[in-house]
């Protein structure tokens, strides 16, 4: 679902827009900070996915408990 949302967002952007966004990010953060930024972004996405999974499991467990 998340990947689909990302792909739908990127589908509306052309190559020129993506290049411009990449250049702006490079100018704002610089080449040396970019790997750190991506690493932090990856960690944040992983934590978000883990939290989402935990919440879904809790909801599913609560629904199963209500059925009993």
Structural write-up:
The chain has one domain (2-67). Helix content is 93%, strand content 0%. It has two helices and no strands. The longest helix has 53 residues, at 15-67.
Key features of this structure:
mainly alpha, 93% helix, single chain, 68 residues, elongated
Total separate domains: 1
Give the radius of gyration.
18 Å
- Assess the beta-strand content as a share of residues: under 5%
SSE sequence, one letter per element: HH
How is the topology of this model organized?
Elements: H1 2-11, H2 15-67
Summarize this structure briefly.
This protein has 2 helices and no strands. The protein has helices at 2-11, 15-67. The mean pLDDT is 80.
